[in-house]
Amino acid sequence: MSFGMGVVENMVNTESSKVSSLSKKPNVVKTKERRNCALCVAKNGGEIPYNYDGNIVYPKSLIYECGPLCKCPPACYLRVTQRGIRFKLEIFKTESRDWGVRSLSSIPSGSFICEYVGELLEDKEAERRTGNDEYLFDIGNKYDNTLAEGMSKLMPGLEKEKEEEDGGETTGFTVDAAKKGNIGRFINHSCSPNLYAQNVLYDHEDKRIPHVMLFAMDNIPPLQELTYHYNYMIDQVRDVNGNIKKKICYCGSSECTGRLY
Ligand SMILES: C[S@@+](CC[C@H](N)C(=O)[O-])C[C@H]1O[C@@H](n2cnc3c(N)ncnc32)[C@H](O)[C@@H]1O
Known about the structure:
The chain is of the alpha+beta class.
């Protein structure tokens, strides 16, 4: 399903015309509303990446949602992840991976699950936390390539987007959920995951520090563990002494590669 510019115009117009027919006077702000939403749609390549149920239909390297400067209502189709968690999620004890997360109800494919929340660190600081790296999530530009490649593997048919030049920008960022976080910190890795991580911007414009939003990539039945692919590179994770660290993967998938890193 495709959403063009016209759909957004209609969507905002529908809201505006209701108000307009009640107030019976021109509304300058409404024109601005339309323009703002159209700008947000343009930033997404002219499409709304979500359907009317708020499920993602166009995974992208980066999704722009409407933000605080847009005058559209909270129900705008370009405000999904910022509305927060919709499903009743449960933290449960797994057999071999300590705590994990599952949903009490079924989840339709493309649904937003939760954000990976934590302390925002520059990579240099994250590297200093080498001995305590269980909850680190590498984000931003450096992550985009891996994300896009991962998504195209997981979602055949997804067009790889043209990467934007970032003018040699090298600062990378990491989210550390070790001390501060939400339920996202308990979601385990699987080699056959049912979630994937999507970069989203809505409350600022800095592409180096997008929100990391987890979405369902399948219809997920109730009580099935929620997992995403951590995308570690094998033999690239090192301890404080520079030695290669190895961690066995216990995801239990028939496609398991045997190691997390
Ligand atoms: C972000 S935490 C996930 C939640 C964690 N299970 C807990 O109880 O807090 C990541 C850590 O969970 C464990 N883990 C996650 N997925 C795993 C897997 N497939 N196999 C083995 N350990 C896993 C590893 O220790 C990993 O460093």
